[in-house]
Amino acid sequence: RIPAGASYQDHKDGDDAASPSAPAGSSHLSTNEEALTSGEKSIEDQEDDRALLQGQALFGDVLLYKLTSSKWGERKEAIVGTQHATEDHLSSLRVRPGDPLSSDVLDDVRVRFVVVCSIVKRALKDRVAPVCFAAFEALRTLLNAYVQYFDENSEEVVGSLQRLVPILIEKMNGEATGTNRRMQQDALACIMRLTDATSIGGQHLIASFLSDETRPLRPRLRLLKDFLEKFGLNKSSALRLSMVMAVAVPAL
């Protein structure tokens, strides 16, 4: 049986393919590391690759192997494992919500946040729906767990989220990008969750993409609608009338 959102080709070449589990240090893992670090890539892609290799140190060799596996089931397992690791790490901190973290712990949390954002970003580019759904869950868990500990001066954290937002917007674009209704709703929910992250200026982070004409219009209109319903145009809102008009007028 092919799960919803998984193409026949993925099912045939994925979980049904003969692919033995790769132990830590296997030649397959080495090949994956070489694939991540070789070739001409953009600065953003290089940063994502470095984050994935950091993820190997944080979560183990098997994670990197599964993230780059040809089997979508293993890719999904890697994302779910990352989510559970975030939950376990949060429990291990033994701090009450709102309490500050020591500098060493905060630095560790920052690294984890950036790494998981890169893992989620990679997963959201997957063409298999169950992998994307797992990525949405992992992102929501990440935001709920850690975002409260950062502020607008946390450049790496804010930067990692800024690189995620365009992909989430693309996931809201429906048939144009082959996403179903659930995926569109999950992407919107993640973006709106980001707007609640006041400590890092979540509203302003999202609002900057609303008037970006290089992004598809349909999801920007939906974002504008939800943004207005939630925050309006009052002084505390990141929205301005000029921004609203810049999005709405071209759609008339």
Descriptive report:
The structure is a single chain. It is globular and about 50 Å long. It contains twelve helices and no strands. It is mainly α and 252 residues long. Mean pLDDT is 81; it is low at 1-14 and 16-31. It has one domain: Leucine-rich Repeat Variant (Alpha Horseshoe), CATH 1.25.10. Helix 3 packs across helix 6 (103-124). The chain has helices at 8-13, 27-37, 43-59, 61-67, 72-93, 103-124, 129-146, 155-171, 181-195, 202-210, 217-231, 241-248. Residues 17-27 have a biased composition (Low complexity). Residues 1-47 are annotated as: Disordered.
Topology:
Elements lengths: L7 H6 L13 H11 L5 H17 L1 H7 L4 H22 L9 H22 L4 H18 L8 H17 L9 H15 L6 H9 L6 H15 L9 H8 L4
Helix pairs in contact: 2-4, 3-4, 3-6, 4-5, 5-6, 5-7, 6-7, 6-8, 7-9, 8-9, 9-10
Keyword list:
252 residues, mainly alpha, Leucine-rich Repeat Variant
- Number of structurally distinct domains: 1
CATH level 1 name: Mainly Alpha
| CATH topology descriptor | Leucine-rich Repeat Variant
Helix percentage range? 55-70%
Query: Separation of termini?
Result: 44 Å
Largest sheet: none
> Rg to the nearest angstrom?
19 Å
Shape: globular
Biased composition (Low complexity): 17-27
Pfam family, one: CEP104-like_TOG
Region (Disordered): 1-47
InterPro entries: ARM-like (IPR011989), ARM-type_fold (IPR016024), CEP104-like (IPR052607)
